[in-house]
Amino acid sequence: MTTIASPLTRQQQPLEGDAQAWWTRWAAQVRAWLHAQGLQARDTVVVLPLAAHLPLARSAWAEGADGWLPRMGTVATFAAEAGGRLRGEGLLPTGDGSMDVLAARALLLREEWARAWRRRDRRGFELGVQRVLEAAQAWAAQLAARPPADREAYVAQMRAVLGAVAGVLARERMLALMGLEWAARIVEHRTDVLWAWRPVACVLVGGTGDDAFVSAWAGGLAGQGTALLRLDAVPRDDVARLRLAACTDFEDEAQRAAAELIVQARPGLPVALVAQDRELVRRVRALLERSGLRVADETGWKLSTTRAGSALMAWLRASHQRATAQQLLDALHSGWAGREGLDTDAWRDLEAWLARQRRAGIWLAGDDEAGAEAVDLEAAALDWWQAARRTTAALRWRGALTLEQALQRLQGLLQQLGSWTQLVADEAGAQVLAAVRLLPRAGEPAELAAAWTGVAATTELDADAFADWVDACLEQASYAPSAPPSPQVLITPPARAVLRPFSAIVWPGADDEHLYVPEPPMSWLGGRLLDELQLPGRTQMAERSWAALRLGLAGAAVWLSWRHADGERLLQPAGLLQRWAVESGLGDLSALPVAGDARVRRSLPAAATTAPRPSLPEQAVARLLPRRLSASAYEDLRACPYRFHARTLLGLREEDEVEEEVSKRDYGTWLHEVLKRFHEGERGAAPEGDLERLQAAAREVSAESGWDDEQSGAADFLLFAAAFERMAPLYLDWWRKQRAAGVDVRRMEAPFEAPLPAFDLQVQPVMLQGRIDRLDRLGGTTPSQPAWRIVDYKTRSATRLQALVRQPTEDTQMAFYAAALELAGLDGSIAASYLALEDRAVEEVVHPEVQETASALLAGLASDLSRIAAGAEMPALGEGEACDWCAARGLCRRDHWEGQA
Ligand code: SF4
């Protein structure tokens, strides 16, 4: 490593509590050194560790104003001012994620072994791409830190060390070598302009560990006669300024940190919130939102986690050739437009249809008009659905497109969805668009913008690779929200908290899981090889972390916290903190002052509430009274009018969570689809082949659901598959007897819609609607020998169904279906049965005299709706089983009613 030669002066300046005062002393010390050397400030350059130090250093110097200001900046700002740029052969490692990842992938794919790797293990290959990228950036930093004339020899030396490409770490060596060759294409680094500098005097501000470029460059300056002062901040440990809070868990720690910030925030200097544990700090930030404090954030968070980023990815996934209905649902729920043309009813219709298709369907399967026509949706929802298929088709290209063409299509999609304008107007949305280069990037160096034009025009990607690229861009870029004026809280990473004035520092996450020594670049090469390559290893990283921590703790009054546990995992205070306790003379962390709990506790008297009894205001009748009514909505009305009010009139729904495991509900959906396909395909087929056809239908639906593939995590479907194998012959036994008796399946999964009569309040017609699992033709001509039979499949026990039909008026579902079919003009008498499909038995449970129940239902329904439209109350009944699994339980506050235990 290059060392700084004479004339070099090393000095130190203690930091103890007040960073502002440190800069004042620093300015006086530099001035004294210049005076002693007979040098002038105007001939001096000052190299600072961070751009954030610039105003501090300048104002400290101005305090003792006596003439010229030295030239101050960071290595990056000096290089930019001097016109430094990146130049070299072909695509270079630029440090820009949107281009580098493409270049790294292209480099790898030139090699046959890498192409074979990709075919064999796509994820492993993508990790390889990341490693080449990491290696290239690490080597580029090493090369930049050497005078240009020394680089060729250095590359040759590293090439020789990495050249042994067999045996242990062979692949890692190849990836590192690839990164080296890529970095070696750079013939001019941005900082190269500084090698030619010859300032009379130079002051380096340090204290947090050596920067490879600064050390080497300063060595060169000193060798050329520049007078050099290296002035390091050295912390003076003061245990009295530290308080340590031991919290129980994540939420406790977040709440205590937020309360501490609220107490510490005052006019003047901001309080620093050190972003050691990013997740915890996001929670603290959310807790601060209601406090009214002005919070600035220098850390940002991944663009992929912003609402705009997730919406963009959701639409990309929903546009994929094998997109599931759930992915379309996710895109619609992402909140960024896409719902134009869908009124509330159409939206509910579409949402319900998508929810039914969640497991068993792929919404774009058979991407053609025939597929579109097969969807039985309301006209408005169907129009929207077909338009969505057409709009998203732009992103389902076959073969390859240039990145430029692919981006034009993405922009077109966003414009057609109506999201483009909203994204551009949104702060995070605009950054998302800039990250994927749909908007220009402010302040981008000209050579990068030019390189991008070439990359976009020449890089070809298939649709999958394009989606991966967008995802990678959003993963690598950070969202930086604009700062409010005079922030009271400043969120900043640990390395940026040093030598900056704060009224106090709140530093949560000081546990062994989050306050740790980061891995050195290319740590996957192993410590021994890193040593051989003379690259920084864990020891150097540990010393750098240690130096930064000590300076960070010395800068103001510090509130530190750690938590005993993260879920099931037990945590300890960080090892670095324990070292600090020993080296500061404290001996043990337990001797540190314990932080009090700044949360304010308030006791509130328990307030009992009563069962709600809402009614529909006259002016809201036309808007809220449903135009369409399903059997389950009617069931709600019967079970609890308040639930009907919440779910049907107000349209409130639980968040539809994406479940990874296959649930019994998913199995039910799957089974319905299997039986549908079996019966649709049986016309003309020989009965002997029934079992084989039923099993083939099961395999087909499983394949479409992705449940035939153990890799996709559908192992939890195996239990259901085994139950189906046992149930299938039982079902076919039942069905053979039915067929022998002349039963004919006429419709499966049949939608229906019929107007409710005797409901005329001058409001609007109400349609009964739904879907019948199956309609059988029985051929009878009297109520005792009906012409039709409604069949509803159930995966629950026959015993429960028998209990349900024992009082037919309580069974609303079958009565609702029968009423709707009669109103729709079905000719002939109707019977209705549940079919309990269990692996031990298949049993038919008849709803007796369903048409009588249907007539009673129609009369009751018309009367109920008329009363509601006239302003009748819809009380929460709170009775029996209805409340047990009710999604509106939190709304009606059933558990807090007066007199409830
Ligand atoms: S919890 Fe009970 S009372 Fe409350 S809305 Fe649901 S069914 Fe009605």
Brief write-up:
The termini are far apart. With 901 residues, this protein is an alpha/beta fold. Residues 1-6 and 366-374 have low confidence and may be disordered.
Task: Give the helix/strand layout.
Layout: E1 8-15, H1 19-37, E2 44-47, H2 54-63, E3 71-73, H3 75-81, E4 87-88, H4 97-109, H5 112-120, H6 122-144, H7 151-162, H8 170-183, E5 186-188, E6 201-206, H9 212-223, E7 227-235, E8 242-247, H10 250-264, E9 271-274, H11 278-288, E10 295-297, E11 301-302, H12 307-318, H13 325-333, H14 344-356, H15 369-373, H16 379-392, E12 401-402, H17 403-417, H18 420-425, H19 427-435, H20 446-458, E13 460-461, H21 463-476, E14 478-479, E15 489-492, E16 504-507, H22 527-532, H23 538-554, E17 558-563, E18 565-566, E19 569-570, H24 575-583, H25 621-624, E20 628-629, H26 631-639, H27 641-649, H28 664-680, H29 690-705, H30 718-740, E21 744-755, E22 767-777, E23 788-794, H31 798-806, H32 812-823, E24 830-837, E25 842-847, H33 850-869, H34 889-892
Parallel strand pairs: 1-7, 2-3, 2-6, 6-7, 8-17, 9-15, 9-16, 10-15, 16-17, 20-22, 23-24
Antiparallel strand pairs: 4-5, 11-14, 12-13, 18-19, 21-22, 22-23, 24-25
The structure holds iron/sulfur cluster (SF4).
Task: Please provide a written account of the structure.
- With 901 residues, this protein is an alpha/beta fold.
- Helices cover 46% and strands 13% of the residues.
- The chain has a six-stranded parallel beta sheet with strand order 8-17-16-9-15-10, with helices on one face. Strands 20, 21, 22, 23, 24 and 25 form a six-stranded mixed beta sheet that branches.
- The longest helix is centred in the N-terminal third of the chain and has 23 residues, at 122-144.
- The protein is elongated and about 120 Å long.
- Mean pLDDT is 87; it is low at 1-6 and 366-374.
- The structure holds iron/sulfur cluster.
- Iron/sulfur cluster is lined by residues 639-640, 642-643, 876-878, 882-883, 886, 888-889, 892, 894.
